[in-house]
């Protein structure tokens, strides 16, 4: 298979049309198998995936160390094709608690120094604050990353979960390659004002939650038991009546997927790919099996009738439950 590529922004790098989100290999979806995570990264690179997404706070450095090991143990040609996309700024406690965000310029440079070491690289390809720090003007945070670009430690500047006004301010400060934000069949909020803004400004979307964290993957069931260290145990969309309702949407998607001879996950990922050349889905596969399924989405062709059938089965506002618990929603500049 030859991997298709897409550009991150009008001036950003060419990346594989699907990126690999590595978060679940370390944290937030319950226990993960480190060796399988590394094998999944190697398999992704072999398949032509170039974009590896992480955050320095995923397992408090664990995810960057894991990616660093995967890069070190990959054949040199594959290592060289890998592009790292790193989020910073989330403050954690030793017990894993969350303590807000820090986007001050000195903090930005401090975070970057540690990430470079953990990843074992001399530069980060795309660097972004995970959540806009309400106490620091975005111009200062982005300006600090721009200095890292000038110094060669960072190649491109990204944003994460920023709203339209913040995107404009950031883009007026420096060239922004992409906005990382939740976007998928049952998470369509960005279509109102954020997507028109990024399109006007030539900024791409690296979309996470394309499978709504597994909810619309076709593999999730109402009787699945989630540990306390699993984000989904606390996510409104995975609770009680919300979960039962959301799984009925999956049943509708399954009918369309089966008629096309593809899996539900492949249909959902193909839908995101079909929303525009500026959309790069980050798939959260943490096993080689899930990765293979995800990559199969690249071969799924959705015509206008398919897209209309999907839209009819799952209208834009069909999901029950917010995409984050209330406390986490408060940190989303994109929801203001
Ligand atoms: N900027 C931000 O605020 C932000 C927030 C969240 C994530 N992210 C980034 O985006 C990446 C992707 O996000 P996500 O993990 O929420 O995405 P996702 O792809 O919607 O969900 C991944 C989950 O779906 C399940 N799944 C079932 N079938 C799958 C398949 N064929 N391929 C992949 N996953 C499948 C996985 O299952 P199992 O439980 O079976 O492993 C995993 O728990 C993350 O790794 C992270 O790098 C960014």
Q: What's the structural blueprint in terms of helices and strands?
A:
Elements: E1 5-7, E2 14-16, E3 19-21, H1 34-46, E4 51-55, H2 62-72, H3 76-81, E5 83-88, E6 90-92, E7 98-101, H4 105-119, E8 124-129, H5 138-150, E9 154-160, H6 164-173, E10 176-182, H7 194-201, E11 204-208, H8 240-260, H9 264-273, E12 279-283, H10 288-295, H11 304-313, H12 326-329
Parallel strand pairs: 3-4, 3-12, 4-5, 5-8, 8-9, 9-10, 10-11, 11-12
Antiparallel strand pairs: 1-2, 6-7
Helix pairs in contact: 1-2, 4-5, 5-6, 6-7, 8-9, 8-11
Bound molecules: NADP nicotinamide-adenine-dinucleotide phosphate (NAP).
NADP nicotinamide-adenine-dinucleotide phosphate (NAP) is lined by residues 21-24, 29, 53-54, 87, 130, 160-161, 180, 208-214, 217, 219, 265, 282-286, 290, 293-294.
How would you portray this structure in words?
The chain has 336 residues and is an alpha/beta fold. The chain has a single domain (5-335), classed as NADP-dependent oxidoreductase domain (TIM Barrel, Alpha-Beta Barrel), CATH 3.20.20. 38% of the residues lie in helices and 17% in strands. It has an eight-stranded parallel β-barrel with strand order 3-4-5-8-9-10-11-12, surrounded by six helices. The protein has a two-stranded antiparallel ribbon with strand order 1-2. Strands 6-7 form a two-stranded antiparallel ribbon. Helix 5 (138-150) packs parallel to helix 6 and helix 8 packs antiparallel against helix 11 (304-313). NADP nicotinamide-adenine-dinucleotide phosphate (NAP) binds next to strand 4, strand 12 and helix 10. NADP nicotinamide-adenine-dinucleotide phosphate (NAP) binds at residues 21-24, 29, 53-54, 87, 130, 160-161, 180, 208-214, 217, 219, 265, 282-286, 290, 293-294.
């Amino acid at each position: 298979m030859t991997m298709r590529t897409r550009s991150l922004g009008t001036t950003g790098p060419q990346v594989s049309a699907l990126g690999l989100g590595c978060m679940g290999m370390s944290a937030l979806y319950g226990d993960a198998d480190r060796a399988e995570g590394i094998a999944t990264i190697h398999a992704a690179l072999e398949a032509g995936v170039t974009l590896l997404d992480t955050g320095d706070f995923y397992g408090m450095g664990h995810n960057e160390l894991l990616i660093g090991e995967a890069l070190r143990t990959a054949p040199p040609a594959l290592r060289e094709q890998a592009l790292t996309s790193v989020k910073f700024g989330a403050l954690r406690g030793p017990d894993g608690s969350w303590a807000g965000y820090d986007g001050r310029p000195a903090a930005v440079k401090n975070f970057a120094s540690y990430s470079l070491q953990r990843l074992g690289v001399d530069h980060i390809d795309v660097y972004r604050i995970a959540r806009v720090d309400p106490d620091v003007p975005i111009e200062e945070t982005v300006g600090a990353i721009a200095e890292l670009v000038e110094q060669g430690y960072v190649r491109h500047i990204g944003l994460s979960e920023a709203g339209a006004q913040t995107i404009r301010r950031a883009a007026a400060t420096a060239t922004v390659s992409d906005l990382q934000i939740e976007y998928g069949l049952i998470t369509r909020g960005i279509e109102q004002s954020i997507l028109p803004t990024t399109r006007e400004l030539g900024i791409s979307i690296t979309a996470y939650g394309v499978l709504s964290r597994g909810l619309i993957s076709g593999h999730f069931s109402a009787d699945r038991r989630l540990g306390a260290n699993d984000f989904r145990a606390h996510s409104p969309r995975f609770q009680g009546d919300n979960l039962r309702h959301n799984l009925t949407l999956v049943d509708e998607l399954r009918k369309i997927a089966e008629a096309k001879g593809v899996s539900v996950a492949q249909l959902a990922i193909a839908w995101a790919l079909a929303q525009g050349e500026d959309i790069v889905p980050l798939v959260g596969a943490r096993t080689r099996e899930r990765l293979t399924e995800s990559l199969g989405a690249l071969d799924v062709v959705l015509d206008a009738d398919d897209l209309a059938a999907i839209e009819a089965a799952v209208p834009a506002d069909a999901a029950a439950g917010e995409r984050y618990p209330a406390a986490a929603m408060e940190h989303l500049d994109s929801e203001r």
